[in-house]
Amino acid sequence: MEHYFTNPENLKSEIRCIKFSLDAYDFMFKSDNGVFSKNRIDYASLFLVKTFLATNKKEVNSILDIGCGYGFIGITLSKILNKHVDMIDINKRAVHLCKMNIEENNVDCKVSEGNIYEGVEKKYDLIITNPPIRAGKKVLMEFLEGGLARLNKDGELWFVISKDQGAKSVKKVLEKSSSCEIIEKSKGFWVISAKNLLTS
């Protein structure tokens, strides 16, 4: 079985369009086989975005969407917040779709292909992700701990994770080097915000 965090070269392309609206903003996302949540906006990603927009009170001037897929999180935040967003994903097809979706939605974003934080040299006010749980615990923690290491002073890592897929244990590990707060819970998903205690 191929996963959305791999690059299956022989997978047939079947482009489809997903229309979406949030806070009076309209979006159109092109999706395809071989990418995460190809037929609809993923509930956990939407929960993460809605929770961030509803509860964050800080000004964020530098944003990274890590494991961006076809671009839902980063593109939505870029349009609603009117901010530049950097985006990165390991999946070649997802990156190609993301480039199309950036143009389609007329947002200030830049996407690059890379393995987790490969090639990421700057630090950010906000790193946001719906991490690929099925890639395994090691990869998951590289997403999260790597994000904490790339935050500006007072920057925050926001992520969504299912209670059934280790939310409690992940939070416990992160609390060794960061302050973690559960911002919201819904349908078994937790949105968590974390600050690196070493940079804050």
Walk me through this protein's architecture.
- By secondary structure, the chain is an alpha/beta fold.
- It has a single domain, classed as Vaccinia Virus protein VP39 (Rossmann fold, 3-Layer(aba) Sandwich), CATH 3.40.50.
- The protein has helices at 43-55, 72-81, 92-104, 137-148, 167-174, and strands spanning 16-22, 25-31, 63-66, 85-89, 109-113, 124-129, 151-162, 178-186, 189-196.
- The radius of gyration is 16 Å and the shape is globular.
- The relative contact order is 0.15.
Strand content: 25-35%
CATH class call: Alpha Beta
Q: Report mean pLDDT, rounded to a whole number.
A: 91
The biggest beta sheet is recorded as: 7 strands, mixed
Strand order of the largest sheet: 5-4-3-6-7-9-8
Discrete helix count = 5
Please report the total strand number as a whole number: 9
Oligomer: single chain
Superfamily (CATH H level) name: Vaccinia Virus protein VP39
**Which regions are unreliable across 5 or more consecutive residues at pLDDT < 50?**
none
CATH A-level architecture: 3-Layer(aba) Sandwich
Cα(first) to Cα(last) distance is 42 Å
Order of helices and strands: EEHEHEHEEHEHEE
CATH topology: Rossmann fold
Output the radius of gyration.
16 Å
Protein structure class = alpha/beta
